[in-house]
Amino acid sequence: MSSPRKSASPAAVADATTPPSLAQDGGQPNIDVDDDGDSAFADGDNFSETTSLASSLIRGHIMNGRKYSSLRSDYWGPSDESQFESMDAGHYNLLTLDSNQPEPLFRSPVVEPQNILDIGTGPGTWAVDVADKYPEAVVYGVDLSPPPVTWMPPNCHLQVDDVLEDWTFRENFDLIHMRLMLGAFTDNEWRDVYRKAYDNLKPGGWIEQVELDVRVMADDNSLRPDTLIAEWGNNFLGCSERAGRPLDTQLTMKAKIEEAGFVDVQEHLYKCPIGGWPKNKVLKDAGRINFVQWTAGLEGWAMFLLTNWGSPEPWTADEVRVYVAKVREELKQPRLHIWHYTVDDEYGVANLNDRGLQFVLTY
Ligand SMILES: C[S@@+](CC[C@H](N)C(=O)[O-])C[C@H]1O[C@@H](n2cnc3c(N)ncnc32)[C@H](O)[C@@H]1O
Question: Which of 204, 206, 264, 337 is most buried as measured by Cβ atoms within 10 A of its Cβ?
């Protein structure tokens, strides 16, 4: 790793007008549409200064014009500039959705943390922001690929490693965080990761996981069933099933985390709008940022899975590019009131073995 990068302060997005309760504990009310507003387009300014890939330590593996980690050949996601832009937008999208929370960076009730681990840290944005905000803590981020950071706080350590290998951390953690690790592991690999997380947490420590549902939905008839977006989620759920690393992690992680010995989960459910169509100011901001996450991420989400596991047979890279271009055009339709689920689960801490579990599902 080289050249750490300074991440923008979460406060930049945390001061937006407080939304009505974004975590819907009961039913899922429709999000009010801003009839006067324009469309899905984000302003873009938030992300214009994003990434510059500085590392030559790990050159990665180039396939179909995208850069993948050379540590594993089975992980679907590229680690390159546009994917880091998408991941950064995902980070700010979630900070915006949680801007009414006392701590938008995580929901675990961790007080004065000393050691924090971010598994699959990607661009390291979450780890850097947490380290910045908690200077007394040491924050580790681990990923298969080097992050594109050019600055990081001295208490932040971003490492290139495979979490399926043995963990050699000297101290146990107060909080282990994972976000958007969907489709990274087989069922048995997930069990291995949760067991290691359990073994590497302090008594009373917390694990927090944020995952999204790849299916796109709408409460009204703005999403026609014959569109590519309407079928997007099922297309990729199918690919990931065939790959043996299902993308529906948000549905399966709870049972596996409990199986690892954790107790007391708390869960919250959100709707994440894509585009600036909601009336509510915070949801509008979040939707605009989420639109950037989607448009920057589309090709990277699609390329590996479709060229390896597409149906009825693996697609060519050009077929994927054409498909993605069409989906991107569909996303720009002005009256599309689409969202994907966000779930945030919390259970209280029990003292069975002095371990608390919080996992936050976002889908
Ligand atoms: C979709 S990205 C999410 C990044 C970040 N957590 C975020 O929310 O922006 C998933 C990350 O997990 C990393 N990853 C996948 N498998 C891994 C493994 N076995 N060990 C470490 N990192 C892994 C990938 O390299 C990728 O950067």
Answer: 206
Task: Scan for tokens 């899975």, then name that residue.
Answer: 305
Q: CB within 6 Å of ligand 1 — which residues?
A: 69, 72, 75, 77, 79, 87, 90-91, 120-122, 142-145, 162-164, 179-181, 184
Could you tell me if 128 and 107 are in contact, meaning their C-beta atoms sit under 8 angstroms apart? Answer: no
User: What is the phi/psi pair of residue 177, to 5°?
Assistant: -115, 140
| Chain segment 185-221, per-residue pLDDT in tens | 999 999 999 999 999 998 888 999 999 999 999 999 9
Domains of the chain: total: 1
Q: Which helix (H) or strand (E) holds 89?
A: helix 81-97
Distance CA 215, CA 190 (A): 22
pLDDT digit string, tens, across residues 21-53:
333 333 456 767 766 543 333 333 222 222 333
For the domain that residue 242 is a member of, what is the CATH number? 3.40.50.150
Contact 243, 305 (CB under 8 A): yes
276 domain-assigned: yes
What separation in Å is there between the alpha carbon of 26 and the centre of ligand 1?
31
What is the Å distance from ligand 1's center to 231 Cα? 25
Look at the block and give the residue holding tokens 């299902």.
Answer: 246
Measured by CA distance, the residue closest to atom 14 of ligand 1 is 120
- What's 143's DSSP letter? E
Specify the amino acid at residue 218. A
Give me ligand 1 centre to Cα 284, in Å: 27
